[in-house]
Write a structure and sequence with these properties.
Component of the BAG6/BAT3 complex, at least composed of BAG6, UBL4A and GET4/TRC35. Interacts with BAG6; the interaction is direct and localizes BAG6 to the cytosol. Interacts with GET3. One of its GO terms (biological process) is protein insertion into ER membrane. The chain is mainly alpha-helical. The chain contains 18 helices and no strands. It is elongated and about 60 Å long.
Length: about 375
């Protein structure tokens, strides 16, 4: 009777996982471990759901939370076991169950949990659709219902993993939503030296600084600029710099902090910003997105009223009228939220596509 009862509790999914393994001596042992793991997870989750249905007091809720934790730790260990044996699909299934446990138990965000999720992410096949679903759901949970696009620490961990995989575009996106300006700078140096032209070294960091400022992250914008210009082998010591665009970014950061000449009063800051944008238009025309980012920065830090016209309106509308038209979009017409076109290389533009400031502002 006892054996029949235990069999009745065994989940069908564990049978599917066991059959998926190759029938070698090692895999048969693993199959047994996985079978027991699936059975325990199923029983834990069933008990948790039943407990939650009849929960009446704090003691019962505590017991429910404890069962969630035990089940989650068991599933996480099982996922790592699957990954170590190359069972990607089964490992991904268990990883999603870990997230489901976090969501159902309404667990508060903690560094240890974020690191566990990042570890599971790093072991997934970079080209698998399960990885995309996992990271999207993990970021949503880590936001804690705040409406932001994920916890900065999780973004940082994801960015570091993608950097190791040399997926620089995706890594750059996650660095933008983290607080790791120094790590972003080192990644951009590697990105520039391995994939960019020497004439574009200034554009890699300029785009990142402008987007950090659009996200109201002044400290990371300053750190990424200082670190990048100090570490890049093709940039001579400055300021001032040989590249005019780097001088513009340097002056812009001083103006944002109110440390540029004439910035002692609010009107002085606006004057400095206006003159900078006018004087450096030849450099700003190198990328059609610069003026749009600067319109947003003007609104955030210099009191420029919101633009009333489309595309290049506002303070820089007239100045930007002579800028080149936008580069061609990717063949699929897909735009990655928050990613910028970066340096004006044709291959890079086609692979990422143009991104409007509106796409970036959804995360503000």
């Amino acid at each position: 009777m006892g054996r029949a009862l235990r069999v009745a509790h065994r989940p069908r999914c564990s049978e599917r996982w066991s059959l998926a393994l190759h029938q070698t001596e090692e895999s048969r042992v693993l199959s047994r471990l996985v079978y027991l793991l699936g059975s325990h997870c199923s029983m834990f989750l069933s008990a948790v759901e039943e407990t939650e249905k009849c929960a009446q007091g704090g003691k019962v809720r505590y017991m429910s939370q404890s069962k969630h934790t035990e089940a989650r730790e068991l599933m996480c260990s099982g996922a790592l076991l699957f990954f170590s044996h190359g069972q990607q699909n089964s490992a991904a299934d268990l990883s999603m169950l870990v997230l489901e446990s976090l969501e159902k138990a309404e667990v508060e965000v903690a560094d240890e949990l974020l690191e566990n999720l990042a570890k599971l992410f790093s072991l997934m096949d970079p080209n698998s659709p399960e990885r995309v679903a996992f990271v999207s759901r993990a970021l949503k949970w880590s936001s804690g219902g705040s409406g932001k696009l994920g916890h900065p620490r999780l973004h940082q961990l994801l960015a570091l993993t993608l950097w190791k995989e040399q997926n620089y575009c995706e890594s750059r996106y996650h660095f933008l939503h983290s607080a790791d300006g120094e790590g972003c700078a080192h990644m951009l140096v590697e990105y520039s030296t391995s994939r960019g032209f020497r004439s574009e070294v200034d554009m890699f960091v300029a785009q990142a600084v402008l987007q950090f400022l659009c996200l109201k992250n002044k400290s990371s914008a300053s750190v990424v600029f200082t670190t990048y210009t100090q570490k890049h082998p093709s940039i001579e010591n400055g300021p001032p710099f040989v590249q005019p665009l780097l001088n513009f970014i340097w002056f812009l950061l001083l103006a944002v902090d109110g440390r540029a000449p004439l910035c002692s009063c609010f009107r002085g800051k606006l004057t400095v910003f206006t003159v900078l944008c006018e004087q450096y238009q030849p450099s700003l025309r190198r990328d059609p997105m610069y003026n749009e980012y600067l319109d947003r920065i003007g609104q955030l830090f210099f009191g420029v009223p919101p633009k009333q016209t489309s595309s290049y309106g506002g303070l820089l509308g007239k100045a930007g009228a002579g800028a080149p038209a936008g580069r061609e979009q990717s063949g699929h017409g897909h735009v990655h939220p928050g990613l910028s076109p970066g340096p004006c290389r044709a291959w890079l533009w086609r692979s990422v596509g143009p991104v409007s400031l509106a796409a970036l502002e959804v995360h503000l």
